[in-house]
Amino acid sequence: MSARLKSWLPRVVAILAIAIFPLIPGVPEFWVTLAGYIGLSSLVAIGLVLLTGVGGMTSFGQAAFVGFGAYTSAVLTTKFGLSPWATLPFALLSTGLMALLIGVVTAKLSGHYLPLGTIAWGISFFYMFGNIEALGRYDGISGLPAFSIGGTSLISARAVFYPIWISVLIAVVLSENLLDSRMGRAVRALRGGSVAAESFGVDTARAKLVIFVYAALLAGLAGWLYAHVQRSVSPSPFGINAGIEYLLMAVLGGSGYVVGGVLGATIVTVLKDQLQNILPKLIGTGGNFESIVFGILMVAVLQLARQGLWPFILALLPRPADKTINASAPALSHRQAPDRGAPLLSVDKARKEFGGLVAVNDVSFTVKGGEIVGLIGPNGAGKSTLFNLLTGVLGATSGEVRYRGERIDGMPARDIAKQGIARTFQHVKLVASMSVLENVAIGAHLRTRPGVVSSMLRLDRGEEARMLAEAARQLQRVGLGEHLHKPAGSLALGQQRIAEIARALCLDPALLLLDEPAAGLRFNEKQQLAGLLSRLRADGMTILLVEHDMDFVMRLTDHIVVLVFGTKIAEGTPAAIATNPQVLEAYLGGVE
Fold this sequence. Notes:
alpha/beta; 4-stranded antiparallel sheet; 23 helices; 14 strands
């Protein structure tokens, strides 16, 4: 049996088990009903897996979006006489529009401000549902019609089980397709911070908003189903407590795994039901003591299994097949190399101040096409800060930066990347949990254009094959071809730096900025890196590099710029720099 078939077998078994569950003789109606509620919770939890576990945006307010879907359908069916099926587009539309409005503000927040923001609007919408007369205030809306097909009512738990779980299966497939795409890699790259993602053309604000709205749409779908399964709606299921439970489901099941959302929903829903029966018998009094158990459970998971429970199950299943690389896929379009010897990058009196500290002090120099320029200086000289000015990570206080004659200072990082400038970082910025291949493929983000919907429907496979083939080619080019499918976090530090170079090459840059590329490399690895950079120069690529290994710099570069405390003290050929008294003074404290 092939590895791919083995990896699909558990999924087929799971789908068959779901399909026959209501048909098994002797299964009580109660458990079929509970399974339906598990499915409803799974939809919300899957959205939170993408939003929180993958995108890194913690949300306590998803229950409010469930409410939008539920109340929209409730109003349209009871006030306007629409059938439940006809209200689905309106339920999704109202939820999506509200998520878009909230997301424009909320998705920009970071740190602890983001979860606090979701708590704030989650509580606000709960009270809004309870105080609007048209929504029945806290009594809600009752008498909603059940789903029906061909005149047959789906009022029983066994009948409505299938619409719920078909929705869950569709959500799982669409979500996994989305993650396995250009946009999915952009979302997953957010876990490594926005600076690296923006530097390769990812519009991080848009990526956050897309995943925020998508998670809300899944919650709205759950609300639409809930309204016609329960046949009544009221504010209580859409409050902040429910939002916390949904987040617990995502974290408990496995916050980085789509199927983990289903697992978490199953555990929490079943556990909540059973605890309501067991705890009063043990304690001798009634109350919401299950919340205490859930709190303890959350702390235990965060301490003992931060990736949730799904990875433990995943370890028992057949290993998923590695991504297939189509070496014959058409190559991505290439950028025209700059004219050799012509000015490519011009820095004119670039200055960066942080309050009273001058990190870069009116630095000027020019990089010409087809040459390797070294930017050297002691620690704290301002080299990485200057890199950040050139790539749009930081804005210059004054001065100009021109690339191919066009001013780029003031441009955001992703727009500078579009011009053909790629970089690596002083501190490696790879997403440790993603494979080396997927990390490198992020570099080709700007070279293809498949959309979100086409990715979810797998209409992007042609472009995806081209991106992965390009990433594989660049990894082969830098000598990491045998590490394609390994997690990036499993590589040695030196190999991670080389992988960053491969990611930068995937952008097809005309100018490559390398921040300490040889740091952490052994002698032989440095020799191989020097050979790679020499070949890139021979191919017409221009390179600006920061490096502390003077022997490496002197042997490789055509031109050197020396910074000390943010100020340029020397510039010239390696031979001239090696004998420059100011440089010797800065590095060695002076010579006789």
